[in-house]
Amino acid sequence: MNDLLLRALRREPVSRPPVWMMRQAGRYLPQYRAVRAGSDFLTMCRTPELATEVTLQPIDLVGVDAAIIFSDILVVPEAMGMHLTLDEGVGPQFPSPLRTAADVAKLHPVDPQDQLGYMLAALRMTRRALNDRVPLIGFAGSPWTLAAYMVEGKGTKQFAVAKKMLFEAPDVAHALLDKLATAVGDFLVAQVEAGAQVVQLFESWAGALGPQEFRTFALPYLAKAAQRAREAGVPVIVFAPGAGWAMSEIAAATHADAIGVDWHTTPHEARRLTDPFSVALQGNLDPCALYAPVSEIQRRTRDMIQAFGPVGHVANLGHGILPDMNPDHARAFIDAVQSWEWTEERLDAAKRASGRAPQLAEIA
Amino acid sequence: MNDLLLRALRREPVSRPPVWMMRQAGRYLPQYRAVRAGSDFLTMCRTPELATEVTLQPIDLVGVDAAIIFSDILVVPEAMGMHLTLDEGVGPQFPSPLRTAADVAKLHPVDPQDQLGYMLAALRMTRRALNDRVPLIGFAGSPWTLAAYMVEGKGTKQFAVAKKMLFEAPDVAHALLDKLATAVGDFLVAQVEAGAQVVQLFESWAGALGPQEFRTFALPYLAKAAQRAREAGVPVIVFAPGAGWAMSEIAAATHADAIGVDWHTTPHEARRLTDPFSVALQGNLDPCALYAPVSEIQRRTRDMIQAFGPVGHVANLGHGILPDMNPDHARAFIDAVQSWEWTEERLDAAKRASGRAPQLAEIA
Asked: Is A228 a catalytic residue?
C-alpha cells in the first residue's frame, strides 16, 4: 500500500510528502459532473455505489495519495431529525432551523448503524474497491460548525444568529453542542469500524468565533469528538480554517495527529506555532493559486513543501478545490508534490530555516 | 470640542479612550430606519441633507465621540463609470462587472469635486451642523477591496473570480489597482479639504488574500492612498479585517496613525504586533457581544480597554454594528467606555501586563 499519508501523520521519515485535496471528489472533474447529472447530491451521498464511484475518481484520474469518502458534514444534523435540503445553486439549508431549548430537546440521539448506515456502507465498499492502493479518510463536521448551521439554517457571512444564541442563551448552546459532540464522536468511531483509516474533523466555521467564544463553545466539544475518534485507533486530523491563531491550542486540547493549515497562515508561521515532532501539519496552497500558469503552480508547491520541512507534512490545499478549476492544474499540483525529493541540500536548507537543526538531524 | 479621538490617534494621554462604532449611522436605530423608509440607500448618500441627518443621529442618540460621514465605499467605482445597484436584501452589485484589460482602460479618471461632489457637500454640511461637538471622520474603500467588488460584481464568500484575475492576469490587476489608488487618494484629499478631520481606509476584503497576494496586490496600493491622505494633514486609520497577521506590515507601509483591530485578534496580540507609541489601535469588541446582557457588555468592554492599555486606543467594535441590535445595548457599550477612568491601579495593571513599564511610565 501507498502508506505515505499514515507515515507522515505519525511524523515518520518520508522521501516526499503525501498529497490529497479537500473536495477532490468534486465538480472540477467532468467525470464527477457526469455522475452528478444523474442524481442529486444527497442521493449520491446515500447510494453507496455512487459515493464509492466518485470517491475513487481522483485516485484514478488525478493520482492523489489518499481517498476521502464522498459525503457531507450535514448528514449528522439530518440524522438527529432535522430536515435538510441541498438545492443546486442555493447550498445546503435547514428550512426549520433550531432556535430554542425545546428544539434542542427534540433532537434524536444518533445510532450511526441505523441513521447513517449508508455512509458506513459506502466506506466498506470503497475500502474494498481501493484494495489497499491508498488509505481511506472518513470525516465529520465538528460540533460548533454543525450547531452554527443548525441554528442559522444555512451558511451565512457572519453566523450572527448562531452567535446570538451563544451570547443570549449560552445554556441552550452548551446543551446542543454536548449532544453534537456525542453524535459526532459515535459517528467517527463507527466510520473507523467500517474501514476509515484516518478521520478528519472539519471545524469549518471556526473563523466565525473570536478567541473567547472559540475556547468556550468550539474547542471543548471538538476535543471531545476528536478524542473519541483517537481512542478508536486511527490518526485524527483537525481543520479549523480562519482560526490559525488557535493552532497550538487545538493540538493540545484534541491530541490530534495533524492540524490543517488554511492559506491565511504561512507554513513558517504554522511551524512556529507547533512542534513537528508532536503534531503534523496539513496544507496549505491557496486553491486560487491553481488558476496560475503551471510553472507558477510548480514553483509555489515546491516553496510550500520546503517551508513546511521534512517532518510531519501532508501536502494539500488550504481550502477545497474550486468547482471551475482546470483538472490539468490540479494534476500539476499533485505532480509537483509527487516529484519532490528531500535531497541533502533541501534538508540542509530546511534545517537552517527552522532553527531546529538538532531535532531534524535525528531523522535526516 | 471633544477632541479625545484626535488625542488618542496622536497617542497623547487621555483619561479614557474615545469611542465610536463602525456602521453607527445604521439600521439598528429606529430614527435611521424612519429616514431610510422614505429614500433608498444611494439617494441618501447623494442627498447631503439626508446624509447629514443620519450621520448626526448616533451623536445625539447614542453619544459617540466621533461622527463618520454616511456614505458607501462603492461610490468610487461608480464615479469611475461602473453602474451600481443597491437593492434591499441583495446588497450592492455591479451588474456589468469588470473582467478584461479593455474594461479597465474604459474606467474614467475621477474628479472628486465633480463626480463625488455630493459626498463633499455632505461633509461640509455635517461639519457645520456638528459645530465642533466631535470630530468628523471621512472614509474610502482601499484599492484591492474596491477592485474585488468591481471584478466580482458583488460581495461573495471567497472572491474567487477577483483572485483568479490576480493569478491569471496580474498585469490587468495591477493596472486596475493603480487607477484605484490614484482615485482613492484624490478622494481622501478632497474629503479633508471639505472638512474631514480624520480619514479611515477600509480594506474590507483583506481576508480574501493570503500573505503573498496581500503584499503584492493590496499593501502597495493601500499605502499609496493612505500616504496621500496623510500628506493632506489629518490622522489616517487603516482597517483590514481578516488580516490581523499583517498589522505591523500595514503600519510600516502606510504610516497610518491607527490600525483597526478586528475581533479575531486579541488586544494583547495586537499590542504585541505593534508599538503603542508609533501607532494607535482601534477596536475591537465583537459586534455579536452586544447581544449579551448589559452586565456582560460592561464587563467585556472594561476588559478590552484594560487590555489595550492607556496609550493610543480608540474604542470601537471589531466590525460593523448589526442591524438587529438593541440600541440600548449599543448605548451600554458607549457608556461603559465613557465611564472608564485610567486610575493609578489600572495603569499599574496595564504596565505589568504590557512588559513595557519604562515607556508607559513616560505618560502615567
From this structure: no
- pLDDT tens, chain A, 364 aa long: 899 999 999 999 899 999 999 999 999 999 999 999 999 999 999 999 999 999 999 999 999 999 999 999 999 999 999 999 987 778 899 999 999 999 999 999 999 999 999 999 999 999 999 999 999 999 999 999 999 999 999 988 889 999 999 999 999 999 999 999 999 999 999 999 999 999 999 999 999 999 999 999 999 999 999 999 999 999 999 999 999 999 999 999 999 999 999 999 999 999 999 988 899 999 999 999 999 999 999 999 999 999 999 999 999 999 999 999 999 999 999 999 999 999 999 999 998 887 654 444 444 3
**Whole-angstrom Cα distance, residue B350 to residue B213?**
36
B74 closest CA partner among B135, B3, B146, B159: B146
- Are A291 and B163 an interchain contact pair (Cβ–Cβ within 8 Å)? yes
Asked if residue A291 lies in contact with residue B164, where contact means CB atoms within 8 angstroms, the answer is yes
B242 touches chain A (CB under 8 A): yes
Tell me whether the omega of the peptide bond preceding residue B284 falls within 30 degrees of 0, making it cis.
yes
The residue of chain A nearest to residue B166, with distances taken between CA atoms, is: A292
Cell of A232: 478508536
Respond yes or no: is residue A221 known to be catalytic. no
By DSSP bridging, strand B313-317 and strand A313-317 are unpaired
Q: How much is the ipTM here?
A: 0.92
Q: For the full predicted model, state whether its pTM sits above 0.90.
A: yes
On chain A, the residues whose CB falls within 8 A of the CB of B210 are 263-264, 286, 318
Cell reading at A23 = 473536495
Q: Yes or no: is domain B4-361 CATH 3.40.50.2300?
A: no
Within 10 angstroms of residue B147's Cβ, the number of other Cβ atoms is: 28
DSSP B19: B
Question: Taking CB atoms and an 8 Å limit, are B167 and A296 in contact across chains?
Answer: yes
Residue B136 DSSP SS3: strand
Question: Which residues in chain B have Cβ-Cβ distances shorter than 8 Å to A263?
Answer: 210
The angle formed by the CA atoms of residues B216, B219 and B220, to the nearest 5 degrees, is 75
Mean pLDDT by 10 residues, chain B (364 residues): 95 96 97 96 96 98 98 97 86 94 96 97 98 98 98 92 97 98 98 98 97 98 96 97 95 97 96 92 98 98 97 97 98 98 95 64 43
A4-363 — its CATH code? 3.20.20.210
End-to-end Cα, chain A, rounded Å: 24
